[in-house]
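Holo model, dihydroflavine-adenine dinucleotide. Inputs:
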Amino acid sequence: MSEQPRLQRLATSMEVSKRVAHRFVAGEKLSEAVEAVRVLNNRGFSATLDYLGEMINNREDAAIARDEYLAGLDQIHEHRLNSNVSLKLTQFGLGLDEEFCLKNVEPLIVKAAGQNNFVRIDMEGSPYTDSTLRIFTALRKQYNNVGIVIQAYLFRSEKDIQDVLQLGGRIRLCKGAYKEPPEISFKQKKDTDRNFIKLMQILLKSDVYHGIATHDPAMISATREFAQKENIGKDHFEFQMLYGVRRDLQDDLLKNDYRVRIYVPYGDEWYSYLMRRMAERPANLIFVMRNLFRG
Ligand code: FDA
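Output:
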């Protein structure tokens, strides 16, 4: 459904689907996302702002994405919000030209550094893993306010983690959201979970501040138990979750004094984001349907 343009046009024009999307997307405009972050901050969560979009196919759109993120950083700074930003390099032109992409994203890191803020580079599908890590490495050698994401479902991830740790880089660990071939990735949930726990332990034992991004109660428990056993303080790492997903777990962690950062997506590209969330968890589809029929 995320790749059907006609369906997408129809759905995005319907007021009702916009209302439903609000559960998982903060809004179409930056001002709405800023308001959502403010509300989260007031409740005790930190945030990371994501201007939805990926795979742009011309340089003008890559420049528009950069300018939107620059404006986002200014808003965060101006409103004194506890939020950084997360971005996808294909939205900054990675699919067009690697050098162009690097130059397009660099001003963001520079601005964030001046505002004492941080930029997280999301990890996309495996055709982009190497180039994403190359750009991250080039940036990390110059700036310490840039971090990366590593996906537990890829066989290569332990080695990638060692490389990033050598640079002192901050990592967000997640399971991975793309459809990957069996030659390079775990296909069984139990294998991805086992690797997630192994990688989480490497991250927590390092001297760098990392993010553990999951809504899986088993992964959360494993993280909490390992941290307790190893005497790793609650301020040494943070949990990260998506806006609107498992709010019960988000609240519970906060109540237990863990740091929780919420990934707040916004923008008019919300349709494909929403469809990916549906694919991950069909129960979300039921949630959407229920709201659609309520009108
Ligand atoms: P898993 O998929 O095993 O689900 C475990 C349980 O969590 C489910 O049974 C359900 O209870 C709950 N759950 C999971 N997803 C849900 C949903 N959508 N709605 C409601 N409940 C849900 N991926 C990537 O490839 N690159 C990236 O850069 C990022 N970035 C990122 C940032 C943050 C903050 C998060 C939380 C996640 C990502 N991801 C990502 C996505 C990640 O790889 C993964 O696809 C999802 O988080 C789902 O995996 P879980 O670890 O949550 O558990």
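The pocket of dihydroflavine-adenine dinucleotide is lined by residues 122-123, 149, 151, 174-178, 213-216, 219, 240-242, 245-246, 263, 277, 280-281, 284 (CB under 6 Å). The chain has a mean pLDDT of 92.
Archived with the compound record.
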